[in-house]
Amino acid sequence: MGQEKKYTYYGFIPSQIHLYVLNEANNLTSDWKLGSEYTGSPLFDGKNLAVKSMVAVVAVESDTNVEVYDLMLGRLVSKRSLGSMEKHLVLLANGTAFKVVSDKLVSVLLLNYQSMPSADVSEGPLPHTFYMSVNGLCVDKEFVFMASERVGEAENRFYTIFALETSTVTVTRDDGEQNEYSLAANAYRYLMFRSFRAYRIKSTGNIMVQSGHIDGGSYGHGYFVPCAEGGFVGRNFYARSTRSWDIKRNYGYRISAIRDTSVTVYNLETHEVLQKLSVKGESGVGFMPSAPAIAVQSDAPVTLAFLDNGTIGTGVMFIGIRPGQDTVFYLPTEAYVEAYFFATEETQVTIDDFAETIRADTPFLFTQPGTHKVHSDGNLILQVNYWPNQPDYQGLWFTGATVPCIETINIDPDVKLTPFEEGFPTMYLIIGVGVAATTIIAFLLVMTKRKSMPE
After folding, report:
1. Range 137-144 average pLDDT
2. pTM (2 decimals)?
3. Does the N-terminal or the C-terminal CB of the chain have fewer CB atoms within 10 Å?
């Protein structure tokens, strides 16, 4: 692809994509069988078994040239010139390290889907991930991506828009269908989209877009939460949560700190304080916040992730590591773990006290569980794959995750966050001017906070 500006996206298709479940739920003495669910492979009668996965590329602009490489074989797999919001879907075999290169920014989604979707397909795997904007950031005013979700009732809306600033949000599908929503700063809204359709979300203020949910059930999918100020290390975070945690499971959100810090967790629905936590440096604290959505604020830089310690849940998780910035992350201890570092050029990295050189286009595998600190002299992408170690032949049955652009991970958005102590009463003040305050406040709060499907 010539000498023009390039944008690079790295990932690794899990080697063993399957899921064994107990014949008798929660009875570890019963036999294991190959699972079956709505995302099961049609090639294997709907069983949770796959030999390939999909890499979905969506263009932001017209005349976008895309190339997909198999890094294991060192060859070009496919290339395409795309129009605005046009998709390029590529199927890659299990165990493939891949690279997507484009001359303009694109959206890249790794999805556990094993065939090209038909025009009338209604369901796909629900990615548990945050999306990258048209500028390659997780916080911005415009996003383009391909949706995938299962069909569900209204209360199971799977996409969430977090408004970091007061915003008017316009959602446009690839066929021109359009909906508009208004959100106050520190508010959020759930939406449903059609699988395998491309969407463009434009906002007057900075927003974040997340898909997936925490249902409190017997199976979960991990993800890193990007920072509201940019990157993945910082002081402010927004994410979905649940009121239905299973307290018997070793899972939840986990804060990993660079140095000692105090953390406040807010209920994003009521703006009330849920928890205050103390976290030791180069260590972490897990928590289960009872709320539909949360905001996390820390006095010192931290990373935030949702994960299972491995006995049940799985994860295909991506995080960007900035040069010169310490990044602390956690790998589950009761699980099989594969963490892959990627770089576009030779990069020196220190993992705890271990120095290593990451070569260009060559994944470096790290498998030590626990809490780790990483420092590098260049941009890195880290993909964490983890899955249960029971039974010992278990596989990684994942849903999907956004693949970040390595060239943009050290760029910060231009965003102004609203403190919760000021933001909540300010919402009342704005909507109360010149009207009967009590009536209008109640009405506007319902309209702002309600979480409904697109009209």
Report:
1. 99
2. 0.90
3. C
